[in-house]
Amino acid sequence: MTQYRYVCTCAMGWHDIPYCPYRRRPEPRPITPGEMRTMRHLRELERAGQLTVARPLDLRWLWLVPPAVVIFFLLMLL
Ligand SMILES: [Zn+2]
User: What is the whole-number distance in angstroms between the Cα of residue 3 and the centre of ligand 1?
Assistant: First the structure.
């Protein structure tokens, strides 16, 4: 059986998980100047009202379909 191990420099030598549980997690990647510029630009567009945030369609009504089908078939039986 092939086993993929994370070879580590700590006393364990390897781990079954893709990181060392005994070492501190790496710091999150810092925001690049380009990302900073993009976020500032998006914020400015939002403030200027030129940016409309697309909202996902409200599909909650789909939960009404199964009970409606059941009620429909019950009515058909009567
Ligand atoms: Zn380790």
Answer: 17
The Cα 49–Cα 69 span in angstroms is: 43
Every domain of the chain and the residues it spans? 1-50
Q: How far is the CA of 11 from the centre of ligand 1 (A)?
A: 7
Tokens describing residue 10? 């700590």
> What pTM, to 2 d.p., does this model score?
0.34
- Tell me, what DSSP letter sits at residue 32? P
pLDDT, one tens digit per residue, over 6-50 is: 888 888 888 888 888 888 776 778 889 999 999 999 999 888 887
